[in-house]
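> call design_seq(struct)
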């Protein structure tokens, strides 16, 4: 296929239209080699730029993720093991809960609690029999519930009242 190029030259004396057939133009071998080398060099430079931007983007993403998630936690507030005397209205346990920070956001309110203790109408935990009981905390959050399954357990022990004094440690 022949490529035609039309050039127009305007002068004060006359206008002329020149048509050049580019297939008839001879390019020297050295100029062809230089052109091929320039195209290859430009391709290599383009790949270098692509990889440079890729690594910069990955580095920026890792740094941003680290900055957002550096204070994330899933921890029990207060003591993990408690001892109370049995059948003492004053010794009923008011749960302190857990602190959950996921991807820089406090999601403590989304905790799921499972326990084998009894709960009174004021939300306090108690037991009718002597023994060791648990309060298990789970999250349905993306980080602590779906990506990694994290559960925290608080152990609550109820003992018979003794004449020795306070059983709570």
């Amino acid at each position: 296929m022949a490529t035609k190029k039309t050039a127009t030259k305007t002068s004060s004396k006359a206008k002329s239209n020149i048509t050049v057939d580019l297939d008839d133009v001879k390019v020297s071998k050295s100029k062809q080699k230089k052109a091929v080398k320039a195209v290859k060099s430009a391709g290599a430079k383009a790949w270098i730029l692509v990889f440079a931007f890729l690594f910069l983007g990955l580095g920026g993403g890792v740094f941003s993720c680290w900055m957002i998630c550096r204070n994330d936690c899933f921890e029990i507030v207060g003591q993990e093991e408690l001892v109370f005397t049995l059948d003492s209205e004053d010794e009923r346990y008011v749960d302190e809960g857990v602190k959950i920070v996921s991807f820089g956001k406090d999601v403590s309110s989304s905790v799921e609690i499972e326990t084998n203790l009894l709960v009174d109408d004021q939300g306090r935990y108690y037991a009718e029999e002597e023994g060791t009981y648990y309060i298990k905390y789970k999250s349905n959050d993306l980080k602590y519930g779906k990506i990694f399954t994290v559960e925290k357990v608080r152990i609550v022990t109820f003992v018979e009242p003794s004449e020795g004094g306070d059983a709570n440690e």
